[in-house]
Design goal:
Layout: H1 3-25, H2 28-52, H3 55-78, H4 82-104, E1 114-116, E2 123-127, H5 135-138, H6 141-147, E3 151-154, H7 163-172, E4 177-181, H8 184-197, E5 201-204, H9 211-215, E6 233-245, E7 255-257, E8 260-264, H10 265-270, H11 279-291, E9 299-303, E10 306-309, E11 313-318, E12 340-345, H12 350-355, E13 365-370, E14 372-377, E15 381-386, E16 389-394, E17 397-411, H13 426-433, H14 437-445
Parallel strand pairs: 2-3, 2-4, 4-5
Antiparallel strand pairs: 1-6, 6-7, 6-17, 8-11, 8-15, 9-10, 9-14, 11-12, 12-13, 14-17, 15-16
Length: 446
């Protein structure tokens, strides 16, 4: 459909949403909106109290979380206006989704540019048979890779091996590609060797979450499809994150991360031995002291010229994650922007927790990009989660970006990275809706 008509549909739906409230609720429409916002704020505050308290206070907070939205619905029913609210919300949701859809074509391209990849001589793949609940065996990855001419090293879970040393030894023997079927932590270790030795790297989505594979646009449902890169592949240049201690890590120093490094509450929780066996219980037992600063170091973060004082949680990512698009949370549109993404959360009370409903515009959430990030603390060491692996690092911790450091070989035909919805700009939507067809077509070809 022509983007002009999508924009017109957005404006029509948005106008209809407001008219439904005004026509059928009159001045009460303002009260309806106020009650809804108050219910959301109380629910957010209740969630904060659940996470930051124990015992009776937590039980009462759970009651608040359950009753606040229920009370809003009951009030709407009592006033005979529930249908008005539901219809208005449906129309507004349609307006927002179509408004963003109309602007999608104006956003930049998704994913790094690709180039043809030549034939391989001696590809070398490392596979973890336990990764992803046994995907290596379930999808017969070893047999399929060997049939395509790859040398495969299968890790022995009973005898841990140094995967970075395995990769270096393979390159010394003449390997012209390194690949991994395993988790993101293993991917990062071997990717560091590939970048160091200047050979392409191949990702096989056989891990549990496969975040790196997802942001490369690979098929996460069938890891065997990733092997198509061996015979019909293209290459991408992507960035790598590097984390080091004491001084800013120079080239070749520090630990590489392909996804992110987390500090603060989440990093401390995953350090608990009980976390893997019972995540929910461990989180509920550990978070109260962490969120109220009763335990754990107080962090200080410097991202280029910006300082974040005493955040409870910090996430430093290899390229920024999407913000403002609920469907795309946890995704990165590109891996070649040459900057780190930084998310800092600082919530000291229930009021600030309620303000988080504003997303990146809320005062408790800092979202920015930087080329270097320094995480310091009032302690000699700080806990960190680097690509899902729990570490304890001396302070200060330095993170930086290595632009275009890694050549990644991917299948020519792959699902790709879904285009993220851009921030909604009603002025731009209105301008687009009023634009004549020829002008719109001309912009689309520019």
């Amino acid at each position: 459909m022509d983007r002009r008509w999508i924009a017109r549909l957005a404006l029509t739906a948005g106008t209809a949403a407001l008219l439904v409230l005004l026509v059928f609720a009159g001045l009460r429409s303002l009260a309806l909106v106020g009650v809804g916002v108050a219910g959301l704020a109380l629910t957010a505050a209740g969630v904060w109290w659940v996470l930051s308290h124990r015992g009776l206070a937590r039980a009462l907070a759970l009651v608040l979380v359950a009753l606040a939205p229920l009370a809003v619905v009951v009030l709407y029913i009592a006033e005979g206006l529930l249908w008005v609210v539901l219809v208005s919300l449906a129309l507004w949701s349609l307006a927002v989704s179509t408004g963003r859809a109309a602007l999608v074509a104006e956003s930049g391209p998704v994913g790094p540019p690709e180039r043809p990849a030549g034939p391989l001589g001696r590809p070398f793949l490392i596979m973890n048979p336990r990764s992803g609940g046994g995907k290596v065996g379930r999808f017969q990855l070893v047999e399929k890779a060997e049939a395509l001419g790859a040398e495969v090293a299968v890790l022995d879970p009973e005898h841990p091996q140094d995967v970075a040393e395995l990769a270096r030894s393979a390159v010394d023997r003449g390997a012209d590609l390194l690949g991994v079927a395993g988790g993101d932590g293993t991917q990062a270790q071997v990717a560091a060797v590939a970048a160091e030795r200047g050979v392409p790297f191949m990702v096989i989505s056989a891990g549990t979450r496969n975040h790196f594979a997802m942001d490369l646009g690979l098929d996460r449902t069938d890891p065997a499809r990733c092997l198509e890169a061996l015979t019909d592949g293209v290459e991408l240049d992507v960035d790598l994150g590097v984390i080091g201690v004491g001084v800013p890590p120079a080239d070749g120093d520090g630990r590489v991360f392909v996804n992110n490094a987390s500090f603060g509450a989440y990093a401390a929780v995953v350090q608990s031995p009980a976390y893997r066996d019972d995540k929910a219980r461990t989180i509920l037992q550990t978070l109260p002291e962490l969120l109220t600063h009763h335990v754990g170091p107080r962090l200080a973060v410097r991202a280029d010229a910006t300082t974040i004082d005493e955040p409870q949680a910090v996430l430093v990512s290899n390229n920024p994650y999407r913000m403002g698009d609920a469907a795309g949370l946890g995704r990165r549109d590109r891996l070649d922007t040459g900057v780190l993404g930084v998310l800092g959360v600082k919530v000291d009370n229930a009021v600030q927790a309620a303000w988080l409903l504003r997303g990146s515009r809320g005062p408790g959430l800092t979202s920015l990009t930087a080329q270097e990030v320094v995480v310091d603390a009032d302690a000699e060491v700080v806990q960190a989660g680097v690509d899902g692996e729990a570490l304890t690092l001396p302070t200060p911790v330095h993170c930086r970006i290595q632009p275009g450091a890694l050549r990644v070989r991917v299948p020519r035909h792959r699902p790709g990275v879904p285009r993220g919805a851009p921030p909604l700009n009603w002025r731009r939507v209105r301008s687009l809706a009023l634009t004549r067809g020829r002008a719109t077509a001309q912009r689309g070809t520019d």
